[in-house]
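Morning!

This is the sequence you dropped in the shared folder:
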Amino acid sequence: MTKVRFAVIIPVYNHEQRVADVIRGALELGFPVIVVDDGSTDGTHSAIRKIAGVTVIRHERNRGKGAAIKTGFAAAAGIADWAITIDADGQHDPGNSHDLIRALPDSALTGVRRPIIIGMRENMSGDDVPWTSRFGREFSNFWVRTSGGPRVRDSQSGFRIYPLPESLFLKIRANRFQFEVEILAKAGWNGFPIIEAPVSVSYTPGTPRISHFRPFVDFVRNSGTFMRLIFQRIFIPSYIRRKMSYKK
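The structure's back. Tokens below.
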């Protein structure tokens, strides 16, 4: 693993309270850190600029988490073989990245379709976990599987490792939260292995955590994404879907 290049991508939107701690934790990994500020309107950008050793890319307007991750992929592709994505809200411990890296099989270094690693959040049934997170995870897991994606236990976790540049070749339409479920479905269509590795999660009461997930709006958006994917799975032959969804 010593010769494999990793880069950390942190998409951020109005997370001035937690993003600095997340970035500092990511820097301790010793990998390049790319922060994509998706048009923040609070003090996020000022907080980011004060941290040395970080590449900062800024969207002039908010385009969505998926768009920020795509921007990060493009920036990381020239310097890394794998992208580690970490949410900026502080729920993840960047140090758990080592657990995700250890989950990469030796064959992943030479495979034609290298795997996506998902950080499967443990203890998501606790009273301190927002109901939207619990419900959203189960809802998403079912529909990812129905869309032709993998059978996974945490399809909404933003703590992942993606292979580069293959992840850029997957044609993902969604630019907001739906990106993270659409990429799993289309990875499944194209034979990408999906591996889950357990990671810790922090929803400590009294700890400031900002989530931009809007239950109704994003439920509607999720439903629209899944209906599109399911329609394509049912009515478009698999070899055409593969060509449509993965282009070098």
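Headline: DSSP finds nine helices and seven strands in the chain.

More detail when I'm at my desk.
O.
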